[in-house]
Amino acid sequence: MSYFTLDEVRRAFQNAQVKNAQAKNALREIAMESLNEEAAAVRDSDNFDIFLSHSLMDADVVAGVKSILESQGHTVYVDWIVDGQLDRHAVTPKTADILRQRMRQSESMIFATSESSSKSRWMPWELGYFDGLRQGRIAILPLVASSGATFEGQEYLGLYPLIELLPVAQGVKRAFVTKGATSREYLPITDFQKGVTAFKTR
């Protein structure tokens, strides 16, 4: 069992920012600016592999999760990066309409749960909407404080599989969908987002 740790995903975000700054040979005024520029051309016809549901209070952590998933070849929707005009602090019909559209454009949902999740106004709504839209394509990604920490989320999250980091080579781990910490069954995220339900055994 190995979940995403807060330090690990923050480091991934910082590393992505350093690489981006070197490639463009410029410093950004704020850490998120380059990500917003990346997403400026997103259209309603574009598709995403993953809709990353999260608490805005976990912004730096979520940016790191996005970076890790993208390094594995997935396209990831994060609302405040792709649609910077959204006001997640206010529950409005306009914001809900845009989020519905982006969920329809996404093949799967990863629900990044942390201590901040229970304070989110949007996460339960996003989970419910996506469950009705693409049942069987939601996985829970626990964000834990330290390596080896256990995950005890809200009871309803137990209905869904988990995202865990599994070893694929010496010292190398990748994110997979699993049936939980006590199970040896797993599924590549690429298969999961297509609706594949036949888990493999490790």
From TrEMBL:
Signal peptide: none annotated. The lineage of its organism: Bacteria, Pseudomonadati, Pseudomonadota, Alphaproteobacteria, Acetobacterales. GO terms for biological process: signal transduction. This is TIR domain-containing protein. Residues 6-38 form a coiled coil. It holds the Pfam family TIR_2. Keywords: Coiled coil. Residues 50-146 form the TIR domain.
